[in-house]
């Protein structure tokens, strides 16, 4: 197995897991809790020895691998098109962020501050989610490029849901950054889709 492709597939699965949680929250008012914990936890894994360490283990990325496979596959529907748009927007935002070292430092410092709340409450506690949402709002949200999240108003207007969406978008940026660091490039999302899907499906089969 191509290690470079493996690392890129894992990082993309992290990205697509984050946007899947955004989509679930916006359209259903809730999301899967195990993938949420893996996604939020990835923000605090700042010195991994290998790509998978960011997410803990392959099982924690199962939702992201499934969504990645669907979004890049031939049977993608409206929901998949929506999630793909979120993912591409996050890749674009991460490119902007990469050119803003001061903002990167600010995000890193504030995530370290949020770590104290994690130690006390756990990764998915509302206090932690709101803290991470505030980081996204004060930094990434100031870019001219905006991510318009589509869903049902009754869900989007709930403060905890809005906070969860922003926290997951921040985690999506983290995975987009990781993807770039392991050699991911935007053109590959067009020309290497088939290889990525095959690799994601092979990873899923290994979990059966």
From TrEMBL:
A single cellular component GO annotation: cytoplasm
Subcellular location, principal: cytoplasm
Membrane topology recorded in Swiss-Prot or TrEMBL: Peripheral membrane protein
Cross-referenced SUPFAM superfamilies: YcfC-like
Top-level taxon: Bacteria
Alphabetical list of NCBIfam families matching this protein: PRK00218.1-2
Family: Belongs to the HflD family.
Protein name as annotated: High frequency lysogenization protein HflD homolog
Protein species of origin: Halospina denitrificans
Lineage: Bacteria, Pseudomonadati, Pseudomonadota, Gammaproteobacteria, Halospina
């Amino acid at each position: 197995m191509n290690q470079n492709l493996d690392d890129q597939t894992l990082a993309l699965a992290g990205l697509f897991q984050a946007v899947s949680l955004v989509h679930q929250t916006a359209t259903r008012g809730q999301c899967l809790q195990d993938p949420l914990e893996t996604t939020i936890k990835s923000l605090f894994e700042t010195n991994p020895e290998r790509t998978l360490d960011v997410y803990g283990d392959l099982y924690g990325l199962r939702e992201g691998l499934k969504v990645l496979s669907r979004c890049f596959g031939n049977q993608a529907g409206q929901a998949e098109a929506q999630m793909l748009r979120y993912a591409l927007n996050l890749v674009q935002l991460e490119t902007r962020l990469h050119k803003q070292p001061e903002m990167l430092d600010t995000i890193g410092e504030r995530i370290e501050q949020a770590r104290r709340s994690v130690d006390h409450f756990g990764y998915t506690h509302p206090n932690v989610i709101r803290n991470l949402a505030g980081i996204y709002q004060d930094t990434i949200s100031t870019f001219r490029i905006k991510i318009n999240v589509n869903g049902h108003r009754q869900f989007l207007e709930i403060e905890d849901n809005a906070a969860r969406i922003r926290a997951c978008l921040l985690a999506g940026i983290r995975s987009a950054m990781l993807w770039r660091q392991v050699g991911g490039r935007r053109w590959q999302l067009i020309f290497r889709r088939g290889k990525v899907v095959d690799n994601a499906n092979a990873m899923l089969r290994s979990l059966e």
